[in-house]
Design goal:
Order of helices and strands: HEEEEEEEEEEEEE
Structural class: mainly beta
Shape: globular
Distance between the termini: 50 Å
Helix content: 10-25%
Number of strands: 13
Largest sheet: 8 strands, antiparallel
Length: 199
């Protein structure tokens, strides 16, 4: 009886351990770029935005006449990126992928997953990849709340998921690899969590 009880307890512990590992499985391989106020050391600053770590996030609220960026020190080819961000209604921001020049970030030399509810031409507003993949109209807005982006780049396949809804699914091979950049262009943008996993 004692042997059976011990064996049962061991089996239960093993199952719990395996269950715990399975639950943790999706998190393996992820690298945190921003975690609350931590992570500024993972980026180089480009431009004049007033990036600061405060109130549980890394944020910018003002800058110069041209956009400012936080540009990763590393380049990435195939990856999945998850981000939690808060944007003011008037924010002009985005996540730039596979940038070709780490000191000159543009939508001509990177893929830009846009955050711009008030874009004059809404074709490439929030949820689009500017100049490559328009967003369906009417588009979902980011202003005034916390949001999520899930971005996948695998070879020429690019996918954008905004707040759980797929907004972009395209094939394009213009940019194969490069750093990632977080943009401030106008308004207030806060990044609470940004993490990446190579594919």
């Amino acid at each position: 009886m004692m042997k059976r009880s011990t064996a049962a307890l061991a089996a239960t512990a093993l199952a719990a351990t395996r269950g715990g590992c399975a639950a943790m499985g999706p998190m393996t391989g992820w690298t945190s770029l921003v975690d609350g106020t931590r992570g500024m050391e993972n980026f180089n600053r480009v431009g004049d935005a007033n990036w600061m770590a405060t109130d549980g996030a890394i944020q910018a609220t003002s800058g110069g006449s041209s956009p400012g960026y936080l540009v990763t020190r590393n380049a990435y080819r195939d990856f999945r990126l998850r981000a939690e961000f808060w944007a003011s209604d008037d924010a002009n921001s985005g996540i730039f992928l596979r940038c070709q020049n780490p000191v000159q970030i543009t939508d001509e030399s990177c893929y830009e997953a846009n955050i711009f509810d008030q874009r004059p031409d809404p074709t490439y507003a929030t949820g689009a990849i500017v100049k490559f993949a328009p967003v369906a109209q009417p588009f979902a807005r980011a202003g005034g709340k916390w949001n999520t982006f899930e971005l996948t780049a695998r070879g020429d396949h690019l996918v954008v998921v905004f707040n759980g809804v797929k907004t972009v699914d395209i094939r394009d091979s213009k940019f194969a690899s490069g750093p990632i950049a977080l943009q401030w262009g106008r308004g207030t943008i806060k990044w609470r969590k940004v993490e990446i996993r190579p594919l």
